[in-house]
Amino acid sequence: MLKFLRDRKVGKGKKDYFHELSIIAKEEREKVLRERIREIVLEEFENSGIKKRIDDVSNSVKDVDKKLEILKSSLVPLSRSKSDTIRKIKMKRMIIELLTKHKRLTSSDLSNYLNLSRTRCSEYLTELERDGVANGVLISRQKFYELNNQ
Asked: Do 97 and 65 have their domain in common?
């Protein structure tokens, strides 16, 4: 079209008009081609089974994430809070191990096993009780502690 305009003697206004039209036509043609390519790619994507594999992988990632949340929630009582020192954490873990081994203990029994005072053991046990790890059961004036069934 531009060659035709160059060969003929046409006014500058018409040349500019035809030039703008050719630019618009070129942009529209590119837009149509891009849209068609996009449709072809989407069609191939759905036909190739990649979408199903992506869904399978995302479902397995969600399952693993749920399992991690369950593990984290079971480790929360054993995890460290801001006020807990390393010794305190170790003692709590030792108390939990003793409770799993002996099923039911009093704070004086724990103090004999751990070489701590009875009141210090009582403090650890009440913290474990508050965290939901242990339960205190009164049996004839003595308070026995046992692990929660989880």
From this structure: no
pTM of the model: 0.46
3-class secondary-structure state, position 117 = coil
Tens of pLDDT along 41-54? Answer: 888 877 777 778 88
Intra-chain end-to-end CA distance of the chain, in Å:
82
Residues 12 and 53 occupy one common structural domain: yes
Upper half-sphere CA count for residue 74 (Cβ side, 13 Å): 8
Encode pLDDT of 80-92 as tens digits. Answer: 556 678 888 888 8
Q: Name which of 122, 117, 124, 123 is nearest 143 in CA terms.
A: 122
In a domain, residue 13? The reply is yes
Tell me which residue of 101, 95, 137, 144 sits closest to 116, measured CA to CA: 95
CA–CA dist 41, 43 (Å, integer)? 5
